[in-house]
Amino acid sequence: MAAMKHPEASEFRLEKVLHALSDGVRLGIVRQLAAEGEASCGALDGGRPKSSVSHHFRVLREAGLVRTTTFGVTHMNSLRRAELDARFPGLLAAVLAAEGQG
Amino acid sequence: MAAMKHPEASEFRLEKVLHALSDGVRLGIVRQLAAEGEASCGALDGGRPKSSVSHHFRVLREAGLVRTTTFGVTHMNSLRRAELDARFPGLLAAVLAAEGQG
DNA sequence: GCCTTAGTTCCATCAATCTCGAACTATTGG
DNA sequence: CCAATAGTTCGAGATTGATGGAACTAAGGC
C-alpha cells in the first residue's frame, strides 16, 4: 500500500520546495512528470543507481512536490500540482515555464 | 565603484536562483528588499556577523537576484525584479506572494 | 515456496554549504 | 595621515546533501 509519508498541503514549506527544485536531477524529474502526467521511478532514473533516484524522489515527496502511490510492484509518481498551486500560487507554473532555459 | 561581479540576465540559471531562495536568511533578505525597495547589507543583518551576511549577499548576487552598488562607504542592494521576471516570468512574484506562510 | 521486479533503507564517502572570527580593502571624516 | 565605517575575503569547523554499493521489503509470477 501507499504507506509512504507525504506531508499535507498545510505542511508544505516554501524553503523546502525551493530546495527540492534547486537540484538538476530533481528538476528534470519534475519536468518529466509535468510533461507525462505520471511515471514510475525507474522510468525517470536516467541511468542512475536506484538508491540515488530513490533519494531524490524522497526529497521531492517530503517537500510535497510529488505523490507516490504503490501500484502492484511499481511506484507511480505524480506532481501534486493543485495542492502546490493552492499553497504557493503560480510557483510551480513559473518553474515549469522556465523550461529549456537552464 | 560597483566593481562586483553581477551576472547578466542571460546568464541567470534557474537552479541557482532556486537554491539562493531556498535558505531562510536569504529569503528574509529578499522579502525585505521587496518591501523596502533597497537597503544596505548592515540594515538587513539581523544581528548576524558581517561575514555571514556578506556570504548570503554574494549568493544572492551570483544568482542574479540582487544588485549591489557602492554608494560612498555603504553598499546598496536592490532586487533585479525586471530582469528576473523577464527571464523567469512570475517566479519571484510567486515566491514573494507566498510570504508569511513559511 | 522461490525467483524476479521495483524500490527503499542503511551505510560510508565525498563535495557543498553555513557560520563565524580575523585580517584585508575602500571610502569618508577629522 | 590616522581613525572609523561598511563590507569583502580568507580560513577553519560543523552541518547538510549527493552518490552509489549492499542488504532488505513488498507484490507478482511460476
TrEMBL record, chains A, B:
Residues 16-93 form the HTH arsR-type domain. SUPFAM superfamilies: Winged helix' DNA-binding domain. InterPro entries: ArsR-like_HTH, HTH_ArsR_DNA-bd_dom, WH-like_DNA-bd_sf, WH_DNA-bd_sf. GO terms for molecular function: DNA-binding transcription factor activity. This is Transcriptional regulator.
